């Protein structure tokens, strides 16, 4: 199915890690005195601390302010209160998913190296040690930084393997969605573009020639089957590099004339020549070319698949996490609430003999 890996990554980011960085604590009265750190929940062999809880709360405040810059303080407080109800649930979700990925033997060591190297290239650093120094200069511990990325990769692979694979989208569902939402697909002529950009500003003629040769090589690689988006992440110097070079949807009149003439002459997955625009070389790929009017279903099939998938992944992930809770040993301090708790995770409801040698509840078949 087209776009499956992209949807899996998006689902992981939106449904799991995107939510995690935007958590807030419930309004629990602070304890008397100064408490530097305390355990507020145990999830099998892992713990959730009060510091993690407060960090999540602060992150949510910043996220809400960013997402709603025009909101009044009262509106911000309302959004804060609504989303804060699930703070502990989401922290528990995080531990459960990462632990399950490890239990499943998912290994992302090679993927981690690739991700770190992409970041190094994005910031024009000449070595991994230079990336480490840059991370530490920003105030973050290097090992913590790597672990965050590793956790994201573990979660993405787990969702792809154990959740995304259960979601089936057939032609009938796509047809039904298209018939019910035809007005959404009434569009002016437009193209959806990706781009790879390399600057020539301040370069010598020899350096400019080398950049042109590199861009030509990239174009040849895509023509021979390499993924444009992956190469954009590695080589593009544009601001959209880490989004796979995705530039968005453009109608006529929105682009410079040489670029418009080139891209509107192309169809799905076709590329422009390497173009010299001002002080950089540019290469564009047309992801989609929509003619004016209601688009035929085949032209928007991927969009429909993505829409249906994103509707289904949330409930499927919550069902998966509910089962993980039933198979796990979770305890929570008084005053904190897991809004997705199931009875079998309460200490007093866990019977003897259900735990392995590590104190983890024995898992049954899902």
Structure description:
The chain is α+β, with helices and mostly antiparallel strands. The protein folds into two domains: 1-185 and 293-366, Porin chaperone SurA, peptide-binding domain (Triger factor/SurA peptide-binding fold); 189-291, Chitinase A, domain 3 (Roll). The protein has twelve helices and nine strands. The chain has helices at 4-20, 50-67, 73-84, 87-103, 109-122, 128-137, 142-163, 171-180, 205-223, 228-235, 257-263, 297-326; strands at residues 39-43, 46-49, 186-187, 190-199, 246-251, 275-277, 280-290, 293-294, 330-332. Strands 5-4-7-6 form a four-stranded antiparallel beta sheet, covered by helices on one side. Strand 1 (39-43) and strand 2 (46-49) form a beta hairpin. Residues 13-35 and 345-366 have low confidence and may be disordered.
For this entry, give a set of tags.
4-stranded antiparallel β-sheet, single chain, 3-stranded antiparallel β-sheet, 12 helices, 50% helix, 366 residues, 9 strands, Triger factor/SurA peptide-binding fold, Chitinase A, domain 3, alpha+beta
